């Protein structure tokens, strides 16, 4: 592995750890637990993406 690649992997790992810690701290201060949203089914995803691309009127 090249030294540059090791450094990049280390930076990514550190960033993920920081993001995880921030999310854990934020979720512990909320009155309700954070829930993961499930992706919509494939046939609904196409409809959702077209409706979300429309400009607000």
UniProtKB/TrEMBL annotation:
<comment type="function">
    <text>May have a potential role in hypercalcemia of malignancy.</text>
</comment>
<feature type="region of interest" description="Disordered">
    <location>
        <begin position="38"/>
        <end position="57"/>
    </location>
</feature>
<dbReference type="InterPro" id="IPR019034">
    <property type="entry name" value="UPF0390"/>
</dbReference>
<comment type="similarity">
    <text>Belongs to the UPF0390 family.</text>
</comment>
<protein>
    <submittedName>
        <fullName>Chromosome 19 open reading frame 53</fullName>
    </submittedName>
</protein>
<dbReference type="Pfam" id="PF09495">
    <property type="entry name" value="DUF2462"/>
</dbReference>
């Amino acid at each position: 592995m090249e030294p540059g690649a090791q450094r990049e992997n280390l930076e990514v790992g550190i960033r993920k750890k920081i993001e995880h810690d921030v999310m854990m701290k934020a979720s512990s201060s909320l009155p309700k637990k954070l829930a993961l949203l499930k992706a919509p089914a494939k046939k609904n995803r196409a409809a959702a993406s077209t409706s979300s691309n429309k400009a607000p009127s």
